[in-house]
Write a structure and sequence with these properties.
Rossmann fold; 14% strand
């Protein structure tokens, strides 16, 4: 797990992009053009429990890069037993079962969330995001504070992130250039894809990326669930996040940061500056790397449920 966490430090935040694959997965050998900056309708899983209060603002969750709503399945099932709220685990744009788009940044993902809430008549929601998803939720809270009941940010700073674009470029190049024959079985395709990706990065990272491999049951075409082309094209532009965030006022609602003590994604010396952006915030450190909610699930659940159940 330690090696996996180290590898995934490279895989969790790249929130800028233009160019497109059309909605749905696109075969590796066909990269069609098309451009759109409109909000997209997001795929999601809804979790409820016996004590769910329909009048309480729901909890909305965003995952990190290469992730999906499945990353929050276990946490969501446990949370609805502890918290009287609906929990929506959401696939962000260009990931999972949500549409592919020409734009991939925190502003666009915030507009997706606004549309999601409006379509379901939720005037307010608690928002939780990990890494890339955490940055999107921070942006959303500062742009639409009246729509945010409270904010949970999981192991990501609004100020800076570790940078290693060289290895990531190699990973995306391997993904985009992968050409698998539709005649191959899923197991054969997975074997070849894994071998190709192993040329760009290490074992544990490959296993995580391979969760995105898909095979169309009708045409046999292989594809990635995530929009690898868009993410790769704008890999070096994620530094724009802080300058865009500075244009928005601080979010003054209740906010908690839950971070891994062994992760480089939140630096302790940045905390005073972060509190200027989120003046009603607190921070918790768990003995974990970047995947805090996987490595310390019980401690994570306790912090999140207590925060969501507060009356402040």
């Amino acid at each position: 797990m330690q090696h996996l966490t180290k590898s995934l430090r490279l895989l969790t935040y790249f929130p800028a992009g233009k160019r497109v694959l059309p909605p749905g997965s696109c075969p590796f050998w066909v990269l069609k053009k098309g451009y759109s900056s409109e909000p997209v309708e997001l795929s999601f899983d809804l979790y409820t429990g016996e004590g769910t209060d329909e009048t309480r603002p729901p909890l909305l969750t965003y995952h990190g890069l290469f992730g999906s709503k499945q990353n929050w399945r276990g946490i969501s099932k446990a949370l609805v037993r502890k918290v009287p709220r609906k929990v929506y685990a959401i696939d962000v744009r260009n990931h999972g079962e949500s549409p592919h788009s020409s734009v991939h940044n925190s502003g666009a993902m915030s507009e997706d969330l606004r549309l999601f809430m409006e379509q379901r008549n939720h005037p307010k929601a608690a928002c939780m995001g990990h890494s890339m998803g955490g940055r999107s939720m921070m942006y959303f809270a500062r742009k639409y504070p009246e729509m945010v009941d409270r904010l949970i940010v999981v192991d990501i700073s609004p100020i800076s992130v570790p940078r290693s674009t060289g290895e990531m470029t190699e990973i995306f190049d391997a993904m985009v250039s992968l050409d698998l024959s539709p005649s191959l079985s899923m197991s054969e395709g997975r074997k070849l894809a894994r071998e190709k990706l192993l040329e760009a990065t290490e074992d544990e990272t490959v296993d995580f990326i391979m969760l995105n491999l898909r095979k169309d049951p009708d045409s046999g075409a292989f594809s990635w669930a995530c929009n690898a082309q868009v993410l790769r094209d704008f890999l070096t532009r994620f530094d724009n996040y802080q300058s865009n965030l500075e244009e928005l006022p601080p979010y003054t609602g209740p906010t908690t940061f839950i971070c891994g003590s062994r992760s480089p994604y939140m630096r302790r010396e940045q905390w005073p500056q972060i509190q200027e952006m989120f003046p009603n915030s607190e921070i918790h450190w768990l003995e974990a790397g970047h995947l805090v909610h996987f490595e310390q699930p019980q401690e994570f659940l306790t912090l999140v449920s207590e925060f969501l159940n507060r009356s402040d």
